[in-house]
Amino acid sequence: MAWVRGFGVAAVQLSIAVACGGDASLIEAAGEGDDARVGYLLSHGTPVDEPGAEGSTALYWGRPRGTRLTVALLLAHGADANNKTARNSTPLEVAAGQNHPEIVRRLLDSGAATDVQSDDFGSSPLMMAASYGHEQVAKMLVQHGANLEFRNHRGQTALNSAAREGYTPIVELLIASGADVNATTPSGFSPLYVAAMFGHTDSVRLLLAAHADPTLAAADGTTALDAARRGDHAEVVAQLEAATGR
Cβ distance 90 to 112 under 8 Å? Predict the structure, then answer.
């Protein structure tokens, strides 16, 4: 039970058995963050991976309102950290997107795969963290070997997503970890292009310092400088004019 360090699972479950009845489903209890009932149901033989709607299990629902103890209890009883719903969504993807770093750590320590593509947007857990600016989670995923060049259904990488939103710490993390600064989508949008388009001066600075190519053109023939001018982002325009000599 290495996953439940510091929680005293045996003692918790003993008190749970006295305090709870067993009429609620495990998935409901996990989703409500009812650690006591989760422990009771598990200690009384409820299958830990019993599927619910669209194949989701209690572990999948244990992170919206669930606690670290909820997840620890489920993992300690053998919950499948890689269970997928009917839409290929995993507990790790959702925990990463909702910024639960401790739950992400426990899932990773339990063997959760980092590069699973969901059906909805095709994003990996790292892409979810990068898209929403969850720096600590992104760092954990990178440290666990997440594929930096994983692409969603639009052909975007995690760096492209972070640059588009101007999440400078994540842009810096991904660059330092070796992400391709010139990775383009099928529409030709590079991380530098989207950072310039939305006027993210710090991200533009980091990308240029990492040798992102300011002359790369999108499918419509426009460059990052054109995008910055179109958006009237004067500081970014100055940065790119200096980089291109235009």
Answer: yes
Confidence band for 65, pLDDT divided at 50, 70 and 90? low
Residue 128: pLDDT band with limits 50, 70, 90: very high
Dump pLDDT digits (tens) for 162-209: 999 999 999 999 999 999 999 999 999 999 999 999 999 999 999 999
Radius of gyration (Cα) for the chain, nearest Å? 22
Integer Cα distance of 217 and 22 in angstroms:
61
